[in-house]
Write a structure and sequence with these properties.
Helices cover 45% and strands 19% of the residues. By secondary structure, the protein is α/β, with parallel strands linked by helices. Helix 6 links the parallel strand 5 (162-164) and strand 6 (190-192).
Length: 332
């Protein structure tokens, strides 16, 4: 072997060795994950349904992974500020993202404004929970069920308004679906509020008439008699409101609507890390105390692994697009 050939051989061997060492180090780091605190980005303000479920999950994830897990709120722009931050984060498993179904709705509404791809820029790790909405009205509204509410809207549309806690939220699309089903889409305004608290305040005060909203925020007002629940939007009645029928029972046979919650990471997070988080999520959501706590908030465990969650997101986005098109929901 001449000197030139020997030099080439040694250079190649060194490169292969370095590459192999780098691969071994990367694999070891993935096996050891996590070795430092994890941050879960919640793209909404503290205290709401997303934040509450995220903090419950984060507390359990800390125990599962034996590592500190911090929830960081990055609210604004219907959750898109926090989502954009995660989309740009290092795909190392130390920045995660917890959001509701609005993550799959935003790109269908804000086509020109979204600075990320809600599918391609994220890895869905696990779907975790879901919660039916309460269809409630101010007690002065003379409707006792969803069919009576539909009749009222048709008889005097100028008298009634719906309210939503956020543009593009599950409650917004649920209300839009109902108005479309009763052929009143476009005739009854859906007033946009920034958050559940001010929306519920005006609903209780009678400034607006009706709302679809997660149980976590609406249930206390129903229990206190400040709102009247007409129906729930899940497949089954809620144990928290056993006397309130579902929309299906109320004559809307195809009406089923949930706000669902899941965990994502930035795209291209190594598969071993995704698998570790996926397995931890499965154990957490199967825990009896987590199920009990979720039930007390009006949610239920609805775990799906990464592959099934990705398929579910695709199917939900297709369904949401149909509602948006049918109800002519546009960003003004």
């Amino acid at each position: 072997m001449n000197r030139s050939t020997r030099r080439t051989f040694l250079s190649t061997a060194m490169a292969v060795g370095v590459a192999g060492l780098a691969f071994s180090c990367a694999a070891a780091a993935q096996d050891a994950y996590p070795t430092r605190p994890i941050t879960i980005i919640v793209p909404h303000a503290p205290g709401g349904a997303v934040d509450s479920t995220a903090r419950l999950f984060a507390d359990k994830l800390k125990d599962e992974l034996k590592q500190s897990v911090v929830v960081e709120n990055r609210a604004g722009a219907s959750g898109m500020i926090g989502a954009a931050y995660v989309a740009r984060a290092e795909p190392d498993g130390y920045t995660l993202y917890f959001n509701a179904s609005i993550h799959a709705i935003n790109p269908l509404l804000y086509k020109k404004d979204v600075k990320f791809d809600a599918v391609k820029d994220f890895t869905p790790i696990s779907m975790l929970a879901q919660g039916a909405l309460i269809f409630s009205v101010n007690p002065k509204v003379p409707a006792r069920n969803a069919q009576e509410m539909a009749a009222l809207l048709k008889s005097d549309p100028a008298k009634y308004t719906f309210v939503t806690s956020g543009f593009g939220s599950a409650g917004h699309l649920g209300a839009a679906q109902f108005l479309y089903d009763v052929k009143m889409a476009g005739d009854i305004p859906i007033v946009l509020y920034k958050g559940a608290a001010p929306a519920l305040q005006d609903l209780v005060g009678g400034q607006v008439s009706a709302m679809m909203d997660p149980m976590l925020s609406s249930l206390p007002f129903v229990k206190a008699g400040k709102l009247r629940a007409l129906a729930v939007t899940g497949h089954d009645r809620s144990p928290l409101l056993p006397d309130v029928p579902t929309m299906r029972e109320s004559g809307f046979k195809d009406f089923e609507f949930y706000s669902w919650y899941g965990l994502w990471s930035p795209a291209k997070v190594p598969a071993p890390i995704v698998s570790k988080l996926e397995a931890a999520s499965a154990r957490i959501m199967a825990s009896p105390d987590v199920k009990e706590r979720l039930a007390s908030l009006g949610f239920e465990s609805a775990y799906k692994n990464s592959a099934d969650f990705a398929k579910y997101i695709d199917s939900e986005m297709a369904r949401y697009q149909k509602i948006i098109d049918a109800a002519h929901i546009t960003v003004e």
